[in-house]
Design goal:
With about 170 residues, the chain is mostly helical. The protein has six helices and no strands.
Length: about 170
Amino acid sequence: MSSSDPTLAPEVKPRGDRLLPVERMVGALAMAALCLISFANVVARYTTDFSFAFTEEYSIFLMVLMTFVGASVAVATGGHMRIGFIADAGTGWRRLCTFLARVCSMVMFGLIAWYGARLTWDQYRFEELSAGLGYPSWIYTIWMPALSLLIMARILVNWIRQARTIP
């Protein structure tokens, strides 16, 4: 969002960020795999009256993966949602809104990382298996805390970069 007020801090764009193409590639591959699984399931269902119901676990995992990777890319590029009327009301409001958004995001993803790690550990410790395929459940949930930590790192990097650009 651009504003005509020159005193507002410019949006921070990633400079020389090497992980961003990897995140975008992982998101694109996850979306492609999800599309292929869904397409194969529809074709098989209509041509053979057989359903690939077991692929639901893969589909859910890929959707969660895409959500976290997409959130990481959005944080890295400054593409997060905001209410322009409030955020662009003035320098003080914008800084306050940005600060609150970052703090709340850090708390939220910190809680997801903490409780996701606990869930993963419990699933590993109790040898919980997935309902459809019988795989260990922790191989699906371990990505939740790992990607939450990645997003938290992205938030901190953006925070530091923007702090350096504000006079």
